[in-house]
Design brief:
The chain has 254 residues and is α/β, with parallel strands linked by helices. The protein has a single domain, classed as Undecaprenyl pyrophosphate synthetase (3-Layer(aba) Sandwich), CATH 3.40.1180. The chain contains 8 helices and 6 strands, in the order H-E-H-H-E-H-E-H-E-H-H-E-E-H. Strands 3-4-2-1-5-6 form a 6-stranded parallel sheet, sandwiched between helices. Strand 3, helix 5 and strand 4 form a beta-alpha-beta unit. Helix 2 packs across helix 3. It starts with 9 loop residues before the first helix and ends in a 10-residue tail after the last helix. 35% of the residues are buried. The protein binds farnesyl diphosphate. Farnesyl diphosphate binds next to helix 2, helix 3, strand 2 and helix 4.
Length: 254
């Protein structure tokens, strides 16, 4: 409390989260396919790009909520290797949103101790966006709070192909008998980050859409009909509740 009876915001919300979530297992890593921006906007008679702008606001709020709930890593699918096939105006709008995010996030992520990593093939992105990403990654690299991964020009198959290429370049594949999952893990864009415990996909579709194909091997999947711009802390908590009712056996027996 800042003054008698005045909520201090972050700390009060954090305390409340701890109280409501204290007897629940919090997934270490949550990955999200943020679907439904276009449909959400269309329903309101607005252009699809309006849905993406709202979606970007949701990302910022959910990152704060995830952090407060004790999630250690959050990964969001912002732009897939297949999304280039969308109309040029929509691609441009999405790239501009990401550009803006990289710049505004610099101050916020530093203040909130967030560590940002962009996964995906950055080489196809505009040079100024690549620079903004590099600056944000560098500035936040030593932060110790939540790890925030943004997938841009990301495809799971593409990531695996690039990982194999990287492993070859490092000379890690010369002995076929020594090739194992750890080698591939260490060459993925997500190297050093634990696999997601929970994957959330919004807006009704029940598929993976080329997201984190290697890393999702044993993740729990959660689908909701809510469109991404309407996804909020309550929905995140619902997903965590569902996760708490899953039995994770990793192919073994309990
Ligand atoms: C899927 O909805 C959403 C996307 C392809 C883009 C997601 C991007 C953002 C939420 C904004 C930028 C992100 C950050 C990190 C600032 P859709 O367009 O496929 O919706 P539809 O299925 O209803 O058409």
């Amino acid at each position: 409390m800042t003054q008698a009876g005045t909520c201090c915001g972050f700390l009060c919300r954090k305390k409340k989260a701890e109280q409501t979530m204290e007897d629940r297992k919090i997934p270490v890593h949550v990955a999200i396919i943020m679907d439904g921006n276009g449909r959400w906007a269309k329903k309101r008679g607005m252009p699809r790009t309006f849905g993406h702008s709202q979606g970007a606001k949701t990302v910022e709020q959910i990152l704060e909520d995830a952090d407060e709930l004790g999630i250690r890593y959050l990964t969001v699918y912002a732009f897939s290797t297949e999304n280039w096939a969308r109309p040029a105006a929509e691609v441009k709008a999405l790239m501009n949103l990401l550009r803006r995010y990289m710049k505004t996030a610099l101050v916020k992520c530093t203040k909130n101790n967030v560590r940002v990593r962009v996964i995906g093939d950055k080489s196809r992105l505009a040079p100024d966006l690549q620079e903004a990403i590099a600056a944000l990654e560098q500035e936040t690299a030593s932060n110790t709070g939540i790890g925030f991964q943004i997938a841009i020009n990301y495809g799971g198959r593409d990531e695996i192909v690039r990982a194999v290429r990287r492993a070859c370049e490092k000379g890690l594949l010369s002995d076929p008998d020594a090739i194992d999952g750890d080698i591939l893990d260490s060459c993925l864009d997500t190297a050093g980050i634990p696999d997601p415990d929970l994957l959330i996909r919004t807006c009704g579709e029940q598929r993976i859409s080329n997201f984190l194909l290697w890393q999702l091997a044993y993740s729990e999947l959660y689908f909701t009909d809510k469109a991404w711009p309407d996804f909020d802390r309550k929905e995140l908590e619902k997903a965590i509740d569902a996760y708490n009712h899953r039995e994770r056996r990793y192919g073994g027996l309990l």
